[in-house]
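Researcher: I'm preparing a figure for a lab meeting and need a structural model of a single chain. I don't have an experimental structure, so a prediction will have to do for now. The sequence is pasted below. Please return the structure as tokens so I can convert it later.
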Amino acid sequence: MKREDIIIIMFTIILIFGVIYLIQNLSSFECSMESSFTNVMSDISYEFEPQGTLYSKTKIFRFNILSSRERLEYFGMMITNNEETLFFENRTSPEGGSIIATISLNESENIIVNRFFKKKCYSEVRL
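Model: Understood. Here is the structure written out token by token.
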């Protein structure tokens, strides 16, 4: 399973009841991301929260992951831009935890945020 969230900074960010909507200025394009925990496996759930003000060049990305049976081998987050790594963090904590990345971007810069984890006895999962 692999999913990439592409955040384009030309978008207007609106927060309504815990849901972040990214709406392209002067266009009809719309993308939304839930800001609540999602179950991936029976004992693992995660939450991904992009944050930032409307015109701020600094964006914050928070990845939270929990394992109720403490079976995580590792988890991490990587943010790339034009094949350049802007942020990478990998943690080893069986119960999970949080990773927070603060990135300064140009006005029209595109980035890709990859999150991943590995549970004992399973292959790595990319979110």
